[in-house]
Amino acid sequence: MKYHRLNEVIELLQPLWQEYPELNLAQLLRKLADEAGFKGDLCDLTDDTLIYHLKMRNSPTEAAIPGLQKDHEDDFKTALLRARGIIKD
User: Fold this and answer.
1) Is the C or the N end of the chain the one with fewer CB within 10 Å?
2) How far apart are CA 61 and CA 46, in angstroms?
3) Which element (helix H / strand E) includes 28?
């Protein structure tokens, strides 16, 4: 994990951990993994899963995932033409 990703995880975990001070780090990570629907071992939980879940956990279910909204097209034809390079940004 790169330093900026580590800092991002720490910034996202801090307020949540303050809500659940009775949990140790492993218990908190298991809670987050369960919320995200992750069923595997904690050692297989990716930092991307953790970061996106922490960013999105209090968002409405129809909210766009951070980083994907910039690529969103309401119209399929426009999306296809943009993907083929016919429409330039």
Assistant:
1) C
2) 21
3) helix 25-36
Rounded Cα distance between 2 and 8, Å, is 10
Domain assignment of residue 89, yes or no:
no
Reported as a single tens digit per residue, the pLDDT across 40-75 is: 999 999 988 898 889 888 777 777 666 666 666 778
Three-point CA angle 16, 21, 25, nearest 5° = 75
What is the domain extent for residue 26?
3-83
pTM confidence score: 0.66
Residues 6+ apart with CB under 8 A from 71: none
Q: How far apart are the first and last CA of the chain?
A: 32
CA distance 13 to 78: 38
